[in-house]
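> call design_seq(struct)
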């Protein structure tokens, strides 16, 4: 076992006493609201950048190009503007930088302090965006939103994985992704509503309302307890045991508590978690925490999440139709995430990953072909009503596949596979890789669409093939496995087993 505890004493099922209590469910629901920050921003930015009043105030050249361009201009290139994409992407480069600070805060002061810090930074950013009078203030606000996202994405998945019993850890952890999808959906409908406001200030309402999830997370973090793992990590064993009894609903937690203490003691011997995660014994965690978020972004999902209204307008949908179409994808996103919550601990992580990848690939090929047939390489063309409905249906099926596979599992799996001594470092790598490639996609998509045209969907489809093959060969099943016993899964794997020393599974001290 990671952390030097005894695997044999517990048995293969790794079942501890206690169950799912009302207390732990409420706690995880409150914590998962951190996902609202990320989701609201994902949904709001694309809609705002498609609003004429917003473009006219901050990006007049783009506005005039969309309204006055020549009929010979390519539809693919109408919105290509580096500063416009910087409005969306600047948040994610800030989140990347913040995730490293958040890693230290999360380990030194606990998970809830990181959540509070993230909520406050997001609140200030929302206020600045709502009152912005120039591009500079707009970007500063986006950077502060990024700090909030970096702290939330670092702390919330770890918090959820540590609070939840092993047999429902997947479902409760996916509460974070559920909150992201709800945030996206709310943002889509907010954008549709504010677009109807006359007077040119509807976009301000859209941006300023980001303060609502920020306040929910900041206030909620005051009432959240810290996880037993975090309390033990800071040396308060009796308090941690009382908290474990409360969240498990039973006095008999000695076995699980003993395992947590052993893991913490081993973790405290590790003086340099960032250097430690580079050791061969942590090679599986390092690779998974790096490649899962990389592949998650290269699915192409953020082409839809960031720029759905812009994409739909590019392809000839009207302004209201484009916003409503993105709202429809938001509804599909929420419903499909519910599917994941109810199936991830029953069917496992691998099955959802593999099915989702196959479904996404089929849809991407179909979408690329449909756009290619109608717009070709010149970007001049249009859809019939039936073709437009087919395109929307294919994108919805694609979004559904992502929402019950790579969306939630991209956060769940990296957060549950790392032993305590490298957990903050592993989650920080997960967040930073995710944010870096989110930034790349957000910054580059409109230019990529202009140059690669319908081939962009085949480009992302190629990565979906690669990542599905990777999952098939290199990700073992982790459902119902206690976090403290995850090393037995790696040890049994045909490839990763050679990296895991015997004492990491059957007992013994960790190396520094």
């Amino acid at each position: 076992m990671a952390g030097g505890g005894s695997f044999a004493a517990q048995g293969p099922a790794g079942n501890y006493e206690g169950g799912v209590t009302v207390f732990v469910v409420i706690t995880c629901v409150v914590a998962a609201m951190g996902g609202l920050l990320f989701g609201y921003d994902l949904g709001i930015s694309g809609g705002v950048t498609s609003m004429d009043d917003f473009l006219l105030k901050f990006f007049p050249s783009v506005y005039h190009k969309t309204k006055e361009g020549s009929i010979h201009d390519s539809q693919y290139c109408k919105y290509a503007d580096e500063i416009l994409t910087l409005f969306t992407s600047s948040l994610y480069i800030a989140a990347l930088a913040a995730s490293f600070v958040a890693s230290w805060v999360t380990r030194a002061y606990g998970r809830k302090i990181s959540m509070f810090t993230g909520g406050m930074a997001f609140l200030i950013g929302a206020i600045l965006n709502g009152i912005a009078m120039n591009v500079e203030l707009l970007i500063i606000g986006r950077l502060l939103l990024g700090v909030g996202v970096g702290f939330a994405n670092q702390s919330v998945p770890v918090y959820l994985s540590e609070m939840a019993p092993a047999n429902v850890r997947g479902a409760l952890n996916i509460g974070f992704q559920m909150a992201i999808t709800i945030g996206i959906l709310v943002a889509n409908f907010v954008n549709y509503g504010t677009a109807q406001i006359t007077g040119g200030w509807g976009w301000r309402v859209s941006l300023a309302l980001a303060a609502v999830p920020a306040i929910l997370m900041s206030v909620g973090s005051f009432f959240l307890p810290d996880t037993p793992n975090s309390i033990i990590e800071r040396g308060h064993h009796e308090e941690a045991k009382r908290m474990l009894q409360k969240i498990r609903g039973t006095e008999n937690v000695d076995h699980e508590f003993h395992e947590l203490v052993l893991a913490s003691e081993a973790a405290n011997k590790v003086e340099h978690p960032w250097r430690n995660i580079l050791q061969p014994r942590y090679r599986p965690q390092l690779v998974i925490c790096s490649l899962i978020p990389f592949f998650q972004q290269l699915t192409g999902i953020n082409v839809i999440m960031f720029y759905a209204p812009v994409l739909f307008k590019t392809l000839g949908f009207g302004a209201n139709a484009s916003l409503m179409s993105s709202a429809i994808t938001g509804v599909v996103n929420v419903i499909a995430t519910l599917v994941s919550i109810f199936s991830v601990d029953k069917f496992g992580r691998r099955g959802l990953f593999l099915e989702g990848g196959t479904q996404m690939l089929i849809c991407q090929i179909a979408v690329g072909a449909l756009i290619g047939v109608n717009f070709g390489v010149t970007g001049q063309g249009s859809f019939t009503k039936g073709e437009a409905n087919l395109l929307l249906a294919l994108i919805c099926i694609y979004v559904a596949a992502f929402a019950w596979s790579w969306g939630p599992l991209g956060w769940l799996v990296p957060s549950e596979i790392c032993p305590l001594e490298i957990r903050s470092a592993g989650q920080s790598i997960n967040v930073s890789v995710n944010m870096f490639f989110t930034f790349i996609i957000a910054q580059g998509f409109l230019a990529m669409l202009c140059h690669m045209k319908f081939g962009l969907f085949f480009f992302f489809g190629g990565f979906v093939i690669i990542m599905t093959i990777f999952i098939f060969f290199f990700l073992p099943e982790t459902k119902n496995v206690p976090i403290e016993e995850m090393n037995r899964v790696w040890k049994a794997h045909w490839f990763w087993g050679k990296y895991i020393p015997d004492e990491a599974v059957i007992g013994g001290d960790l190396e520094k």
